[in-house]
Amino acid sequence: MAILFDLDGVFYQADQSIAGAADVARWASDNAIPHLFLTNTTSKPRSSLVEKLARFDIVTSEAHIFTPPVAAVRWLRQHLAGKKIALFVPEKTRAEFAEFEIAQEDDQDVVAVIVGDMGSDWNFSTLNQAFRLLMCEPKPELIALGMTRYWRAEDGLRLDVAPFVIALSHAAEVEPLVMGKPALSFYKAAIDILGESAKQIVMVGDDIRGDVDGAQQAGLKAVLVRTGKFRKSDLEFGIQPDAILDSVVDFPTWYEKNVLADA
């Protein structure tokens, strides 16, 4: 048995911890339940996420955090090792790709254009630069670090990476290779790391599409929590979570009753 935990909206929201969530992380560790923190966050490297979790009294390591950049690096090693890539990611996230040759602004000979959540760093010039690279021949891969549409920040909802990937995909007529939730390949990579069969894993998240539908498509059970980006209208999409909980705080009780009891 194993667990995949989303982070933002489940354990914290922006820079505020969700009450009692740290106890759930300790519960999983104390009971030696294999688990990963599976997040579409591309604005921070894993080292920063470890530090952020520590501020919320959650002790973990980079090995327990699986992000789109990590998945992208795994894929690049297998398919495009030793090639030059173009990064459109936050400055801090570039560290995850340190083993690869990174294109400079005027380079054209790249094999992959990697797009993450750059937030307010996006502008027309930067978006057009990515577009021009994708129009080169032979066409490079368009690698999307997730396809999350939006997220909830302190000042309200903000666009995430998907709208920019879709714009580039449409303009350059290239299909993106998605390395984050809800992509099946992303969930399969997490399953491989955990070393469990899909039916033995539960995903916990606040996103009805990325966390619940994505996980269920991969054969996992999926629990939706009413924190983070959750809205009542999420329940009108025809996606049926295996459980709906007020908070991740309620998860251990549900897990012990509905998963461990049936094991």
Summarize the structure.
This protein has 263 residues and is of the alpha/beta class. It contains eight helices and 15 strands.
CATH topology of the largest domain: Rossmann fold
| Sheet with most strands: strand arrangement | 5-4-1-13-14-15
Summed up, the helix count is 8
CA distance, first residue to last residue: 8 Å
- Counted beta strands: 15
Structural class: alpha/beta
Q: Let me know the average pLDDT.
A: 93
> How many domains, as an integer?
2
* Rg of Cα set: 18 Å
CATH superfamily of the largest domain: HAD superfamily/HAD-like
Corresponding CATH architecture of the largest domain: 3-Layer(aba) Sandwich
**Global morphology:** globular
Contiguous uncertain segments of 5+ residues: none
Determine the fraction of residues in helical runs and give it as a percent range: 25-40%
Q: Tell me the name of the CATH class of the largest domain.
A: Alpha Beta
Give a structural overview.
By secondary structure, the chain is an alpha/beta fold. It folds into two domains: 2-40 and 181-262, 3-Layer(aba) Sandwich (Rossmann fold), CATH 3.40.50.1000; 68-178, HAD superfamily/HAD-like (Rossmann fold), CATH 3.40.50. Helices cover 32% and strands 20% of the residues. The chain is built from eight helices and 15 strands. It has helices at residues 21-30, 46-55, 68-79, 124-134, 162-172, 184-194, 208-217, 251-258, and strands at 2-5, 12-13, 16-17, 35-38, 65-66, 84-88, 101-102, 112-115, 141-144, 150-153, 156-159, 177-178, 201-205, 221-225, 243-245. The chain has a six-stranded parallel β-sheet with strand order 5-4-1-13-14-15. Strands 7-6-8-9-12 form a five-stranded parallel β-sheet, with helices on one face. It is globular and about 55 Å long. The protein starts with a strand and ends in a 5-residue tail after the last helix. 44% of the residues are buried. The mean pLDDT is 93.
